Automatic annotation (TrEMBL):
Acetyl-CoA binds at residues 82-84, 90-95, 118-119. SUPFAM superfamilies: Acyl-CoA N-acyltransferases (Nat), SCP-like. It holds the Pfam family Acetyltransf_9. Gene3D superfamilies: 3.40.630.30, SCP2 sterol-binding domain. Residues 3-151 form the N-acetyltransferase domain. Transmembrane segments: none annotated. The lineage of its organism: Bacteria, Bacillati, Actinomycetota, Actinomycetes, Kitasatosporales. InterPro entries: Acetyltransf_17, Acetyltransferase_Eis, Acyl_CoA_acyltransferase, Eis_dom, GNAT_dom, NAcTrfase_Eis, SCP2_sterol-bd_dom_sf. It comes from the Bacteria. This is GNAT family N-acetyltransferase.
């Protein structure tokens, strides 16, 4: 196959986006989404495969910063808009784009690349590990009750227009992003994404509604949701579909959930993406009536392994030699001595010392944000222990007190 791989010019944008649309089923993007992507896209950080004048492959990489354990916001390539034309699939076009992109990311000095996959089977071969397990929830609000922490009744709730409340919501997001590994710091322009609400995407639901939680006149939380009304012989069976819910304190958090549970003419609350440690599951009276579906969230690829491992903090003191295999980015292959703890700057240097743990870069990516335990990976046979006790030591050090989560779409 004779295709040319190159950075698209601004004039290539329509053809480039057209390839992406077709690969995702051919439904044209709504004008709102098209305009948003046109503003956010970075042609200089994108790649296209061209077969003559036809664009047959696309990939992009936004310049993000992602919170890692310890609170640093690490430069990260946000890989996105990956597609290959149906006429050209399984001929290695994606592989060649991943090759070029990871070389580019390395040259940009971004220690990690992250993505959300359309299908989990695609990116492991390129060294991406599923790092932030997330849950999709559906709660039967006719039968489930909520326990409410002290102060819930003092939280004031106020409806606001999603666009008008953007600054207040973004301030809450920014404070939470700093404490939750896996969360991208919002880059300029991206605040529009959570309130992008094309009518074509509402699936019979209302336009997006925003409710703010306030304490002492300050916004302490928000929820955006839509209601999908439904009627049965026996009465109303509407669903509340939550897009985003965030709160700075337990009372505001509970007040928002209580509000969602009480919306008239509805009998269920659905959330497509919540963290694996979402506190609501500790408030519900009957967890069996909450459908909880585990999903893969953010995938992490260590591009510059020592820089990435040095950027995070470790929950307990650690001193281990990791023997890492990385066939796709061979500069990471080798033995690395990692030392670090909760406070100081970690060190990760090449070493000739014998290995304590043997693993691939994919497993290291999965464990990087503290959401997947090295012990679990060892139990699965994906991490090999060469020094007794090394798995337990490293698993504790890599773990974190909050589960990593990526509430940011891209
Ligand atoms: C971050 C994001 O943007 S996620 C969005 C990804 N895009 C999509 O899902 C859109 C629809 N799908 C597509 O456009 C294409 O099928 C792609 C991009 C997923 C794959 O592109 P291709 O050029 O066909 O991939 P390529 O030929 O390089 O395949 C490389 C390997 O991955 C495997 N592979 C590719 N796609 C898939 C898949 N969906 N599921 C499982 N394996 C896959 C191939 O079989 C091949 O395996 P091999 O090396 O063992 O032979």
């Amino acid at each position: 196959m004779n295709t040319e791989l190159r950075i698209p010019s601004v004039a290539d944008w329509d053809a480039w986006l057209g390839c992406l649309e077709l690969a995702f089923g051919g439904v044209p993007l709504t004008p709102e989404s098209r305009e948003m992507y046109a503003t956010l896209s970075r042609p200089d950080r994108s790649l296209g495969h061209w077969d003559g004048s036809e664009c047959v492959g696309t990939a992009g990489a936004y310049p993000f910063r992602v919170t890692v354990p310890g609170g640093a916001a690490v430069p990260a390539a946000g890989v996105t808009m990956v597609s290959v034309a149906a006429t050209h699939r399984r001929q290695g076009l994606l592989t060649s784009m991943m090759r070029r992109q990871l070389d580019d990311v390395r040259s940009w000095g971004e220690p990690i690349a992250v993505l959300k996959a359309s299908e989990p089977a695609i990116y492991g071969r390129f060294g991406y590990g599923a790092a932030t397990p997330e849950t999709a929830l559906r709660i039967d609000t006719d039968r489930v009750r909520l326990a409410l922490p002290p102060g819930t009744d003092r939280v004031r709730l106020r409806r606001a227009s999603p666009g008008g409340a953007l600054d207040a919501c973004e301030a809450v997001y920014a404070r939470l992003a700093a404490g939750r590994p896996g969360t991208p710091v919002r880059q300029p322009g991206w605040e529009k994404m959570p309130v992008n609400d094309p009518a074509a995407h509402r699936e019979g639901g209302s336009p997006l509604i925003c409710v703010l939680a306030e304490r002492d006149g300050e916004v302490t939380g928000y929820v955006t949701y839509r209601v999908r009304p439904a009627w049965e012989e026996a009465g109303p069976r509407g669903t509340v579909a939550v897009r985003d819910l965030a709160a700075l304190d337990p009372a505001s958090y509970a007040a928002l959930w209580r509000f969602l549970f009480g919306i008239d003419l509805t009998s269920a609350v659905e959330c497509g993406n919540r963290p694996a440690d979402d506190a609501v599951l500790q408030l519900v009276s009957d967890v069996r009536r909450c459908e909880v579906r585990l999903r893969d969230g953010l995938y992490v690829r260590l591009v510059d392994l020592p820089a990435a491992l040095q950027a995070r903090r470790y929950r307990a003191p650690v001193d281990v030699v990791l023997e890492v295999e990385d066939a796709f980015c061979p500069w990471n292959t080798g033995r690395w001595r990692l030392t670090g703890d909760a406070e100081g700057v970690a060190s990760c240097r090449p070493t000739e010392d014998p290995a304590d743990l043997v693993l691939s870069v994919r497993e290291l990516g999965a464990a990087y944000l503290g959401g997947v335990s090295l012990s679990t990976l060892a139990s699965a046979g994906l991490v090999r222990e060469e020094r007794p006790g090394a798995v337990a030591e490293a698993a504790l050090a890599f773990s974190w007190d909050v589960a990593p989560w990526c509430p940011h779409e891209f």
